[in-house]
Description:
- The chain has 297 residues and is α/β, with parallel strands linked by helices.
- The protein has helices at 5-30, 53-56, 106-114, 131-146, 167-178, 222-228, 252-265, and strands at residues 64-68, 77-83, 89-95, 117-123, 155-165, 184-188, 205-210, 234-239, 288-293.
- It has a nine-stranded mixed sheet, with helices on both faces.
Amino acid sequence: MQPSRGSLTRRGRTVAGRTAGLVMAAGLVAGGVATAVPAHAAGPYERGPAPTRAALERNGPYAVDQYAAQNPRGFPSGTVYAPRSSETFGAVAIVPGFVSSWSQLSWIGSRLASHGFVVIGINTNSAFDGPSERATQVWAGLQNILGDSRVNARIDHGRLAVAGWSMGGGGSLEAARSHPEVKAVVPLAPWDLVNKNFSGVRSPVMIIGGESDVVAPNAEHSVPFYTSAGSAEKAFVNINDASHFFPTGDNAIQSRMMVSWLKRYVDDDTRYTQFLCPGPSSGLLGEVQEYRSTCPM
């Protein structure tokens, strides 16, 4: 028996409606409105739409909640940034440098959170604390947000990372050496006179330095730190003409590389490998003076 014209019409409308719904859903994800894990996700921790270079250099698809650190222990104060979503995310603690405060780096907190990380930026007990003290305090920052009732449900407690600037960068390497469970570490213009050998670091490490840094010259700090790191996956980014203070302002190269590294190793999201391997072009005509990497796959 042949179906009636009316039943064909109704069936056509049903198929059309389903198709339209799928197209609309795809459009929401591509446009960054939807915050659920993409249907095509190859891994359980993929978050947000497929990345582009331009997208990584600005704020990401997530709205961000911001709080003062709750009952800090081991550090005096800090600021927490969390994606406004019911998903779970990796967590990152960041510590500033010598005689510096978190306010100088605050753009990094909101930037990372908007791309899908819960972040705490801390202030140190003393502006004169060295890298070892900053290592202890950045780890205390991670413990703080893991116990923060406002954001802990948004954190996957097994996916943690640390970062820091200047003495805080040295401190982030020392923290990663003491806590091998850290999934990634990103030192920014790191400085450490006491520790030069980080063969004990096993976490994937990306060191970002400035070509014109006279406070922590790459040859004395970033390069030996990178060379000695025992990590199977590591990278060194030397930004053209950048001074020691490049992390204190919105920096497109730092943003792209830092987000990509954290996405690749905290989220195990291979969509970001394209920005790390072969990486940015180097030399006089490139955007960085030098790029070294084990080229993650």
